[in-house]
Amino acid sequence: MVVAIKLFEYGPTRSLKCRWALQEAGLDYESIGNSPEVLTLGELGNIHPLGKVPAILIDGKPLFESSAIVTAVADLVPALDLVAHHGTWERHIHDQWTAFAATELEIWAWCAMLNTREFLRSADKQVPEIVDQNRELFQRAAGALENVLGTQPYMMGESFSVTDIIVAYPLYLGQEVGFLKGFSMLEEYVQRLHSRPYCTFQL
Ligand SMILES: N[C@@H](CCC(=O)N[C@@H](CS)C(=O)NCC(=O)O)C(=O)O
Fold this sequence. Notes:
CATH architecture of the largest domain: Up-down Bundle
CATH class of the largest domain: Mainly Alpha
Distance between the termini: 35 Å
CATH topology of the largest domain: Glutathione S-transferase Yfyf (Class Pi), Chain A, domain 2
Strand order of the largest sheet: 2-1-3-4
Largest sheet: 4 strands, mixed
Strand content: 5-15%
Bound molecules: glutathione
Radius of gyration: 17 Å
Oligomer: single chain
């Protein structure tokens, strides 16, 4: 099976999830941009309604949102079992954890970054007082994951899957802003994933 894949990406962003998934899947792809200028490309604007990265064309079909892209990439290579297959209960569990990662974890770590990192948002537009609330909400969700990963090595059980790429990214952001301290299972999990050859996240 040969699939034409164009990934609109820029290194230190959520694009990293997609690059990692493509490498796990063993799929060749054309990297478009991979610099801040990617955000100015009209072709990107035609795929992503907000002109953000990552975005992808798979055989010409457009898709955005990093979790959707990662899942679609894994679905291209079903024999590798990189994601629970369509129509199984496990697939619903994958959807459960990827939605949880975006709405209960990533949002709070990202909000903390936006309000403390001037390369993301100028100081006059930051509200650093919000960070304590971000930490509280992130850590509530992190506690739930800590319980899961205390009994199994990966989010879906005994084996790595792209669910882990999607869940680990907000943990990696959380580590950046110091929200992961004291969550020993999560710190070990991040290290475990980091030791995979295709991991793109920098600790
Ligand atoms: N929920 C989206 C978030 C995409 C996103 O915010 N991308 C950032 C880089 S990590 C971006 O392109 N920002 C440029 C902008 O805000 O215009 C996803 O997971 O793909």
